[in-house]
Amino acid sequence: MVQTCSVPNCDSKLIKDNGIIFYRIPLHNSKSFERWSKALEIENWTPTENCVVCSKHFQKYSDQTSPSEVSFTDLLCGSVLNDSKRKICSMNNNKRKSNNLDHTNTKRLQKGIKKTIPITLNKYGTRNFEQGCFVQTCQAPKDLPLYRFPYNNKHLLHIWSKRIGLSTLYDLELYLDITICKNHFHEDCYDKNSLQLKPNAIPSINLIDYLGPPENCFSTTTNSEEISMMTSNGDHTWGWLGSTEQFGRISELNEFIEIPKSQLQDEKYACFAQAAHCFIYAENSKKVFNIYHPRATILMQLRYDGYFGFPGGLIDANEDIVNAVNREMAEEINLNTDLHSVTNDDHVISHWSEKKKLVLHFYKLKVTMAELIEIEKRALLAQDYGSEVLGTVRIPLYTLGDHYRGFPVFLKHNFIGCSREQLIAALSILNIMKPEEIKLALSANSINI
Ligand SMILES: O=c1[nH]cnc2c1ncn2[C@@H]1O[C@H](COP(=O)(O)OP(=O)(O)O)[C@@H](O)[C@H]1O
């Protein structure tokens, strides 16, 4: 059922991308509720949790003022309603009441359903709930830093939840997937020149359900143990969450599916975020320890998150895939793109993940062994070396006499996205390894030793 505005004669409906925002009525805040009632000029008003008012009735929105610059107090003071019959949402006889707010944050949390409003596409062509701010009314720019909920501190979690209008504390698991953006934290909440929140920071601004003073942005908890626990836990609790970090979350088995080449232009993938990575390799016949045949030398890299992956990254809006992968390689491994760069002909394979709304393209770059060594050296001077990239590594493609150490052990590491699938596909497509050899390495296990 489509959600509609509770104001009589207002036809606003919750439809994707129509630019209309819906506000819940602040039922649990008597002061603001009183101001709403006054602005709406309603007497004997008994709205339910199902009542919402759309952004058309807030004056500041009519001139397209950026919501992030407007406090909700301003919004309410400037409210204008153009209808004189204000009998909205009376408990007894309002037909609309069941239409409204079927999708409140509260209910979504209960069901574990993701936020669906407001939906606008970000620069990656996607804005699903996990990437966005959970505050239902938030209209801040989409690429603001996001903060995880302090789910390891119940006291703080409760305050955060209450501030955004959740009346109960829900199953902790649910908080793992939701975030609040920078738009809701007072500037005092950050350490100087940093985006990291102070340990007891709480959301205090641009919240429709909380109209307290903006400076009320710290929890007054005196439990220093709790605070030190939070700070020492660092980033994995509620630190700054990069807007694209969610793509990197652990993949499920078989989450990435190969896209047939004939379907690469399919509309279906156009609205997904896209990334491209590259398989840099050289033929190499120099035996390792004079025993093991190396087959080829292939470069992977250890990433900041502990996974192995290939150089490359997300494609910016309107950026060509090939330009993006070359740009990323210049940033991540300082590749001299005047000497080496991929072209459309170097495309190897593409995959997609429905869950992550992500398409991953894979390219190859063949160089000589001498060039590869030069690439390795230059990588130490890359812009991203030491932060995003912790070093390039060569892959052992041989297997030792125990049928386990070597390539099979390498395959037991953790690989980002579908990079393991990409590696295996490229080895076979580029005839570096025979399918039987790959199969053997994949099925080898330590029991053989
Ligand atoms: O080598 C790779 N092969 C396949 N997918 C990858 C690889 N590296 C990263 N990914 C996927 O692509 C997403 C974005 O890539 P990456 O982290 O390299 O982008 P960025 O450098 O622009 O932040 C990752 O979160 C992950 O899901």
TrEMBL record:
Listed SMART domains: DM3, THAP
Q: Name one GO cellular component term.
A: nucleolus
Q: Which reaction does it catalyse?
A: IDP + H2O = IMP + phosphate + H(+); a 5'-end (N(7)-methyl 5'-triphosphoguanosine)-ribonucleoside in mRNA + H2O = N(7)-methyl-GDP + a 5'-end phospho-ribonucleoside in mRNA + 2 H(+); dIDP + H2O = dIMP + phosphate + H(+)
Q: Which family does it belong to?
A: Belongs to the Nudix hydrolase family. NUDT16 subfamily.
| InterPro entries the UniProt entry points to | NUDIX_hydrolase-like_dom_sf (IPR015797), NUDIX_hydrolase_CS (IPR020084), NUDIX_hydrolase_dom (IPR000086), NudT16 (IPR054754), THAP_Znf (IPR006612)
Question: What is its subcellular localisation?
Answer: Nucleus, Nucleolus; Nucleus, Nucleoplasm
Which coenzyme or cofactor does it need?
A: Co(2+)
UniProt keyword list: DNA-binding, Hydrolase, Metal-binding, Nucleotide metabolism, Nucleus, RNA-binding, Zinc, Zinc-finger
Q: What is this protein called?
A: U8 snoRNA-decapping enzyme
The chain positions of domain THAP-type read 1-74, 129-206
Q: Which GO terms describe its molecular function?
A: 5'-(N(7)-methylguanosine 5'-triphospho)-[mRNA] hydrolase activity; DNA binding; IDP phosphatase activity; phosphodiesterase decapping endonuclease activity; snoRNA binding; zinc ion binding
Q: Which CDD domains match?
A: NUDIX_U8_SnoRNA_DE_Nudt16
Is Zinc-finger included in the keywords of this UniProt record?
A: yes
Q: Which organism is it from?
A: Sipha flava
- Enzyme Commission designation: 3.6.1.64
Write down the superkingdom of origin.
Eukaryota
What is an annotated GO biological process for this record, any one?
Answer: mRNA catabolic process
